[in-house]
Specification:
- The complex is a heterodimer of chains A (306) and B (281).
- Chain A is mainly alpha-helical.
- Chain A is built from 13 helices and 2 strands; from the N terminus they run H-E-E-H-H-H-H-H-H-H-H-H-H-H-H.
- Chain A has 2 domains: 51 residues; 236 residues, MetI-like fold, CATH 1.10.3720.
- In chain A, helix 10 runs antiparallel to helix 13.
- The two termini of chain B are 30 Å apart.
- With 281 residues, chain B is mainly α.
- The relative contact order of chain B is 0.14.
- The chains are: A mainly alpha (306), B mainly alpha (281).
- Chains A and B meet through helix 1, helix 3, helix 4, helix 5 and helix 6 of A and helix 1, helix 2, helix 5, helix 6 and helix 7 of B.
Chain lengths: 306, 281
Amino acid sequence: MTSTTIATANAEAGRACLRINRTHLAAIVLLAPAVVLFGVFVVLPILQALRFSFYDWNGYGSPSKFVGIENYSKVVTQRHFGTALRNTAFIALVSLLVQLPLALWLALSLYRNTWFTAFFRTVFFLPYMLAEIAAGLMWNFMYDGNYGLARALSDAIGIEPNFVLADPAWVMPAIAVVLVWKYFGFHMMIYIAALQGIPNDMIEAARLDGAKPWQIVRHIKIPMIRSALAVTAFFAITGSLQLFDLIVPLTNGGPNNASLTIVGFLYQFGVTRMRIGFGSAVSIVLFIICVAVSIIYQRAARMAEE
Amino acid sequence: MSNTPMEERRSFSSPGEIAGILVVAVFVLLPIYVTLVGGFKTIGELRTSPFGLPQSWTLSNFAAIIGGGQFPVMLGNSLFVSIATVALTVLLSSMAAFAMVHMKFFGRSHLATFFTIGLLFPVATAILPVFLTLRDIQLLNSLWGVILPQVAFGLAFAILLFRSFFAELPRELIEAALMDRCGYLGIYWFIVMPLSLPIIATVGVFTFITSWNSYLLPLVTLSSESQYTWPLGMQQFQGAYSTDWPKLLALLTLTLAPAIGFFLLAQRYIIAGLTGGAVKG
């Protein structure tokens, strides 16, 4: 009897072991493809970029000419890099100060569910869906002083047609209009989701206490959607940091590099000329900015929660 | 239930508000409208009346593009890239998320941090090393050279969405299946995945749009026209027909119309994805 108990116990243990091994095997099968692909195309490249940024290298053979931080000093002193940084900051500011308030105002008007609000929500969200390349080309037409909106406007007020995209002073504001057009609906949707999460009793109670609509917005609705405000600010800034596709069909960075963004600069001076070291240094600068923005956002989001 | 009639009336109370909404709607729709009608116009008509309806609906621009040979090839390439990207992203991210949520193994929490790295920076940051890697493994100028990095960069967000969905699934379900000696792979495929159709749709639709619209990665990876995806082809068209607006607008219409149709059908999933991600992110 004892021996059979031991035998069963052994068998049980054996099966348990087998199951643990099987479990590990299953975990490996389930995780390995994602981990490998992510490692090869996301994590490794960033480490490689860090390494390459210390070399002068055209991509052929192996990087052998170590130059220290020379690439970084070249990036910082390249005069178009300053333009790219300024333009990126300008876009981020427009996103934060024009786009987000517009999105918030529309969200406050449209967050309740009726056919009217559903229709306009769909309309406002539509541009977000369209490819940047297509949206940029559409607006290139709108801005064409010989044909589009630009011509209609200048005819209406009786001036010579203006080619804003070819004018270094106007090109960035013109791009900012397209940016607002394309992305405000996205931010609006995030606000709407957050506003719909506010308990109705809360608003009702404030109204019964005699609070005016704008007081409810200021003291209840906006404080209640703090996290949504933080996340849209984060998206607005990271979106500005990676802006590129939309500008290609509009100006391709021109005129005279006046509308370069950080990624545009990286593409123009790093990728097309195969200057791996120089381009990698730009990548690392961009990476550091992105990480810094993420850290600041995490802190801000934690504070908003409390 | 929560919307009393009184409140609904209140939300329409201000005519100024409605006027503002209408102004924004015109701002949003005008470029789309001008594009959709522009392809039917002649260049002279486009110059004199860009905003009116076309006098006669000319189809020659559309016929020239569809019959041009290059356009169907580009759409086919884009479709292949997008479908493969969606299939791989959904499969790999759901597998990984399932293991991370429902299995206990060493280093589980570190793995979550590992994938979070992917949310920190855009593909542009890594574009040069990705290019070199693709060259080394002979995937340059191949559609798979676009698909694999796209999947890799989509994983972090997709895993995040799947993890929060899987965490809501009842644990008893998994435990009962384990008792029945159903292995983890079986549980994943036969029990969890069929319950996850809403999140699969959300991740799938979101990934599809990102892939369908993506530009930088194909630009760096693909060099011959036969491999071009449609955004590259459109760029090339713009270069070749820079002044032939009716033709360019017709091309835009041909690519926008399916995108708008898809959007109207899949809107629910798109919004679920972005608000779900925003809340978690």
